[in-house]
Amino acid sequence: MGIMKKMKISPSLLSADFSRLGEEVVAVTEAGADFIHCDVMDGDFVPNITFGPMVIKAIRRFSPLPFEAHLMISRPDKYWKEFADAGGDIIGIHIECRVDQNSLITEIHKAGKKVCMVINPPTDVKTIYPYLADVEQVLVMTVNPGFGGQSFMGEVVPKIEQLAERREKEKLSFEISVDGGINSETAKIVKKAGADILIAGSFVFNGRDYKSVIEGLR
Ligand code: DX5
Ligand code: ZN
Asked: d(Cα 12, Cα 158) in Å, to the nearest integer?
């Protein structure tokens, strides 16, 4: 186990060709991806705007893989259901949002969906500890969210180690996912730290052969 395990790969559509989004979803699915990562931004929680549930609904039929809706929005409590109804299987909620995280987790589970608790680089890892037993995934951001193609923040790596340690100690089962600046070099670092899932946008979609890029990340 540990360093020998096979990483799961989640291509982030943020760096895909938006004029042929359905085809891009097909291509990464055929290339062996494990999830489809959808970056939803509202221009308030982060300084960028992407797409909403309509787009997820439109591309959902192009892949049988689980879709992650990474909600970088200020009011996930108000909008998560629309993303679930659109075909999101895993709903990513930021710990920094000023909402009642506990009732949000309960509601999402009641709808039969999985919860991913997301934490930004400046946020203390301890803020997420009270939720670890109740979520399926924890997503450690290794860039400040908002844009693809930023550089990996190495100072965040101890957070991944702390989460992996705590998971082991408390016999918890959440998966650790990492998002931001993932390439073949940084993949090794986070894998060693205890990550299970790599989210990669520009590294996958700027590559010519998605299959070899995805294989190279594992
Ligand atoms: C950043 C998004 C990421 C982003 C990753 O705000 O949450 O999913 O697309 O892009 P890369 O892999 O290019 O850093
Ligand atoms: Zn993301």
From this structure: 24
Spatial contact of 9 and 32, defined as CB atoms under 8 Å apart: yes
Rounded-to-integer distance, Cα 51 and Cα 159, Å: 29
Instruction: Look at 29 and 3; give whichever has higher pLDDT.
Output: 29
Distance CA(24)–CA(186), nearest Å, equals 24
pLDDT, tens digit (0-9, with 9 covering 90-100), for 103-138: 999 999 999 999 999 999 999 999 999 999 999 999
CA of 122 to the centre of ligand 2 (A): 16
For ligand 1, say whether the CB of 92 is within 6 Å of any of its atoms: no
Nearest CA, atom 4, ligand 1: 148
d(CA 7, CA 175): 11
